[in-house]
Amino acid sequence: MTDETIRPRAGARRADVRRTTRETDVRVVLDLDGTGEARIATGVGFYDHLLTSLAHHALFDLEIGASGDLHVDEHHTVEDVALTLGAAFRRALGDAAGIARFGEARVPMDEALAEAVVDCAGRPYTVLALAFRGERVGALPTQLIPHALESFAREAGVTLHLHAEGANDHHVAEATFKALARALRRAVADDPRRVGVASTKGSLGGRSTDTTLAAPDDEDAAVADVGTADVAAPRAGGAHKESPEP
Ligand SMILES: [Mn+2]
User: Fold this and answer.
1) C-alpha dihedral over 13, 117, 39, 207, to 10 degrees?
2) Domains of the chain
3) Could you tell me the distance, in angstroms and rounded to a whole number, from the CA of residue 226 to the centre of ligand 1?
4) Looking at the DSSP assignment, which residues form a beta bridge with residue 112?
5) How far apart are CA 13 and CA 36, in angstroms?
6) Worst-scoring range by mean pLDDT, 24-28, 68-72, 151-155, 206-210?
7) How does 182-191 read in b/e, with b if 16+ C-beta sit within 10 Å?
8) Which of 14, 95, 119, 196 is spaced 20 to 30 Å from 212 by Cα?
9) How does residue 204 score in pLDDT terms, banded at 50, 70 and 90?
10) Closest to 151 measured CA to CA, from 126, 179, 182, 183
């Protein structure tokens, strides 16, 4: 190997996570090194649209199947899909060795403009300023969009700063997910000059180079890590069940 930009991966960055509660049953299959192929079926059409856009612009392959208590409302389904996607992201990223760690992007959609800045360091935090004007876009209540992003960040162990404004809520939401996608794509990309993790601590948050990963500081943010079949889910009654790598 003479080209330093070609760094073989220790393993595929894929995860297959299932999360089941009395309210929802969610399965997420995620490949961080995909082509943007998405098959999303949450039962909430505009949410499918946003998640499809996320996968497409992040170049993640993403399959999401969810059946939830939509007869109650969209809340549990939207939240639990986001939690499961976050868990899959964290698991797929593994020890995060060799990645850029930080990413940012600004994406317009007609009159709307969104900015995303992310840190994939195992530190769940969200700062959101999303200027929605109405109560819903299609079947998705706009107030669930920040809730979904917070839920994703918590389980993914990602710091998210997202700002977006515009006259049309569909545009604001879509630009937000596209900006998030582009920022995540950059953050998880290889830094060919980086040996090990991009942290002076030597580990990123709860991640380490060991196969048994330490829990993050915030117990609420705990997710099933490598070798863990079941852990308590953040919302009552849930558990992640992670399929073994193929
Ligand atoms: Mn909730």
Assistant:
1) 30
2) 14-242 (3.30.230.40)
3) 26
4) 109
5) 14
6) 206-210
7) bbbbbbbbee
8) 119
9) confident
10) 126
Distance 105 CA to ligand 1 centre (A): 28
Report the 10 Å Cβ neighbour count for 145.
Answer: 26
Ligand 1 centre distance from Cα of residue 172 (Å): 22
The verdict on pTM exceeding 0.85 is: no
Distance CA 179, CA 128 (A): 13
Q: How far is the CA of 6 from the centre of ligand 1 (A)?
A: 43
- Cα angle, residue 123 at apex, residues 158 and 188 outer, rounded to 5°: 40
Per residue in 99-133, pLDDT (tens digit) is 999 999 999 999 999 999 999 999 999 999 999 99
Residue 161 has pLDDT above 90, yes or no: yes
Q: Is 245 helix (H, G, I), strand (E, B) or coil?
A: coil
- Rounded to 10 degrees, the C-alpha dihedral 134/70/47/12 comes to 150
DSSP count for the chain of H helices, then E strands = 4, 11
CA of 220 to the centre of ligand 1 (A): 13
Instruction: Tell whether the model's pLDDT for residue 60 goes beyond 90.
Output: yes
End-to-end CA distance of the chain: 28
Between β-strands 125-130 and 159-165, what pairing exists: parallel, antiparallel or unpaired? parallel
Taking CA atoms, 58 is separated from 40, 48, 94, 108, 143, in Å, by 15, 15, 18, 16, 24
